[in-house]
């Protein structure tokens, strides 16, 4: 056994409870189809106090354990893995492991070739009545090399007191040999090992499709040091360093443009089909291509924290998580295989008890064993789901697990956040009004804007950013604000000069200022309603001094609908989405205007964050499967509540990557129909695969019981269906919609 070396494991907090964590431990890969060792390790870990969920796969090389940190430590879990004599790989070995996996695939291919050669020699020699020694030597080669990986898997299975498909195939091949049918046994082993190799290739290709992203990131950067360009390995580049990128170069690290203008091809990361213009202040991402213009970029994230590194990591982690269909099949595999053995024994014992001849009875039983084996069933789901995850990753769409691919297929209703999702989120201040009849008649609109900007400068809200941007554009002198406070979904306040400036909507006035006497409140609220009727978002600006408040004026804002939003809504309807809702904290008139423009069915306006959650819960009750689309920051609770949370703009947002089930790495709203379309196509592929797999089993078993078929035909049907579902799942790598 290899020495037990520890890989760097990653803890990720689980949203259901702050006491739950998840660790992923990379373990020694196991060859062959046998997965009994994984099942045995899962059972062993589940018995540990504090462990909530376990998912182990020797095929992927991952053991993923969800546990309660207050009850059990990660080190105890590692020790439990070692107790089962399972090697844990060191992080430095992962690249070597990838190379060894490819080497093993080549070795499997060579073994398949030798099996075919040995089978052909044995068959031709028998036909020509050649030397018996040569015939049996040929069949011997076929049995040894064709059964090598199957025998290893079977032994590993039995060591864990379990049975699996490898054991079925080995027993069937030896059974055929024992009754004088060596060709049938050799053919079984040849097709079994061939389909196994093709499965490994298919699954490996879906994984390599996303791992190829890492090759898009340069190994070095041209960093400016003392005015000179110095070539530095990207792992040695620090946050704050400035590097230079020329036309045609790949951008090595995430950063912000400090000098220069150009266009950047971000298709590899965000899936955007056209290059994106960049100028000073714009964010750029490692692995993307600078198409035109020379750029100087200040590093904002180190190499291991870059968007492309996070994308690769998240997709690899997602591929290790199984879809519900796959988990069900895994649970049924062991009892199904035991059932096949029981059926085979009955197919031998009952006819013999009734006086049938042994050789023909045993031959039919071996044929039945091969036909009933569930190889195609077991490979049908991962072949499709892993391909779907890889396909999405290449389009800038990150599914954070196979279960989310299946969830996307069942969505009946979609809820959208308005600002930054359906709209650009680039809110502009359009109007600054000073109230008529104000005691301080000298107050100008610029002075009112200056007071508002002093308070809003402390806020991250999109209305606040628009206010500050307009003040900067007018080059206004903005005073300092003190004691800033924010009321989520309502407004803000802060002390400016000798009074407190309040900026908020009607809800803010009715709650925060409910006990204050407010001069000019009625005309102020009337003006808000007028502005809202014009489709503008508006807020009151009031000054409070010595317990008395006065409305100073109003600010009005507008936002613009994203290009393609209406077409995206139509695409969702064509996919069968029954109901589309818009959720916003904005006023109802503004929200309704946007909804009418893009074709939304229902509008829920003036919602606080907790009210968005309640609305999602209500939608789930009405439609069962609901997707929520937001920006991944202020919509985090609603994203977590929905059946499927979809966050936009994840390339630059850490919160989006941690909160949502699906992350659109770019801001392309048109990718939302792609998410649901890919889910639906995956569901159809799974249906076809399972129909092929179970159909082939039912057809062959029924025919064998009623009429009987030759063992070679059962072998072709069994292994042919296995290869067919593998290749059908692989087609999802090319999905475009």
UniProtKB/TrEMBL annotation:
Domain of life (superkingdom): Archaea
Q: Which GO terms describe its cellular component?
A: membrane
**Domain annotation HMA: ranges:** 23-89
Which interval of the chain is the signal sequence?
none
Q: Where does this protein have coiled-coil stretches?
A: none
Q: Where in the cell is it found?
A: Membrane
Q: What is this protein called?
A: HMA domain-containing protein
Q: Specify the species.
A: Salarchaeum japonicum
């Amino acid at each position: 056994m290899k020495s037990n070396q520890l890989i760097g494991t990653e803890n990720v907090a689980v949203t259901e409870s702050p006491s739950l964590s998840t660790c992923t431990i990379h373990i020694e890969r196991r060859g062959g189809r046998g997965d009994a060792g994984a099942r045995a390790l899962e059972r062993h870990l589940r018995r540990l106090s504090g462990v909530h969920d376990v998912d182990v796969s020797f095929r992927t090389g991952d053991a993923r354990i969800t546990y309660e940190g207050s009850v059990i430590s990660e080190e105890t879990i590692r020790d439990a893995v070692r107790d089962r004599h399972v090697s844990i790989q060191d992080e430095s070995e992962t690249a070597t492991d990838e190379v060894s996996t490819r080497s093993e695939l080549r070795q499997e291919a060579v073994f398949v070739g030798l099996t075919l050669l040995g089978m052909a020699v044995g068959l031709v020699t028998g036909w020509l009545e050649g030397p018996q020694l040569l015939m049996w030597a040929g069949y011997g080669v076929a049995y040894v090399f064709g059964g090598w990986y199957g025998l290893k898997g079977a032994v590993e299975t039995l060591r864990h007191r379990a049975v699996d498909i490898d054991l079925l195939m080995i027993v069937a091949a030896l059974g055929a040999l024992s009754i004088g049918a060596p060709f049938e046994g050799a053919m079984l082993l040849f097709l079994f090992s061939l389909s196994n190799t093709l499965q490994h290739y298919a699954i490996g290709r879906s994984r390599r499709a996303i791992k190829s992203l890492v090759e898009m990131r340069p190994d070095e950067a041209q960093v400016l040091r003392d005015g000179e360009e110095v070539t530095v390995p990207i792992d040695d580049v620090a946050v704050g360093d400035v590097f230079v990128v020329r036309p045609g170069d790949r951008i090595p690290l995430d950063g912000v443009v400090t000098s220069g203008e150009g266009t950047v091809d971000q298709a590899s990361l965000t899936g955007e089909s056209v290059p994106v213009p960049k100028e000073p202040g714009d964010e750029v991402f490692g692995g993307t291509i600078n198409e035109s213009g020379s750029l100087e970029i200040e590093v904002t994230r180190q190499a291991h924290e870059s968007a492309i590194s996070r994308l690769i990591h998240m997709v690899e982690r997602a591929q290790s998580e199984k879809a519900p269909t796959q988990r069900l099949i895994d649970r049924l595999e062991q009892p199904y295989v035991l059932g096949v053995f029981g059926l085979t024994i009955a197919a031998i014992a009952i006819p013999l008890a009734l006086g049938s001849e042994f050789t023909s009875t045993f031959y039919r039983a071996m044929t039945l064993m091969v036909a009933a084996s569930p190889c195609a069933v077991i490979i049908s789901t991962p072949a499709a789901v892993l391909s779907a995850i890889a396909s999405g990753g290449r389009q800038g769409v990150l599914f954070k697990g196979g279960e989310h691919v299946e969830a996307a297929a069942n969505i009946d209703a979609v809820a959208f956040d308005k600002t930054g999702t359906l709209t650009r989120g680039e809110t502009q201040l359009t109007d600054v009004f000073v109230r008529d009849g104000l005691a301080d008649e000298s107050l100008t609109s610029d002075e009112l804007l200056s007071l508002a900007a002093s308070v809003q400068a402390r806020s991250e809200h999109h209305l606040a950013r628009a206010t500050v941007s307009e003040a900067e554009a007018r080059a206004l002198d903005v005073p300092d604000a003190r004691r800033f406070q924010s009321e989520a979904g309502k407004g803000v306040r802060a002390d400016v000069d000798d009074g407190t400036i309040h900026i908020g909507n009607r809800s803010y006035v009715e709650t925060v200022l409910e006990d204050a006497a407010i001069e000019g409140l009625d005309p102020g609220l009337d003006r808000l309603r007028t502005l809202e009727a014009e489709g503008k978002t508006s807020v009151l600006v009031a000054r409070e001094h010595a317990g008395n408040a006065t409305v100073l004026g109003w600010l009005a804002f507008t936002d613009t609908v994203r290009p393609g939003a209406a077409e995206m809504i139509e695409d969702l309807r064509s996919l069968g989405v029954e109901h589309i809702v818009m959720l916003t904290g904005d006023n109802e008139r503004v929200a309704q205007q946007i909804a009418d423009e893009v074709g939304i069915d229902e509008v829920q306006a003036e919602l606080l964050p907790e009210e968005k959650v309640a609305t999602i819960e209500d939608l789930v009750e009405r439609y069962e499967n609901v997707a929520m689309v937001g920006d991944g920051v202020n919509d985090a609770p609603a994203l977590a509540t929905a059946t499927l949370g979809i966050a936009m703009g994840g390339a630059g947002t850490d919160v989006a990557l941690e909160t949502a089930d699906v992350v659109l790495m770019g801001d392309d709203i048109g990718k939302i129909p792609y998410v649901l379309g890919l889910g639906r196509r995956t569901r159809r592929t799974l249906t076809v695969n399972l129909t092929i797999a179970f159909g082939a089993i039912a057809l062959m078993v029924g025919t064998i019981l009623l009429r009987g078929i030759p063992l070679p035909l059962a072998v072709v049907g069994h292994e042919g269906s296995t290869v067919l579902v593998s290749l059908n799942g692989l087609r999802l790598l090319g999905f475009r919609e």
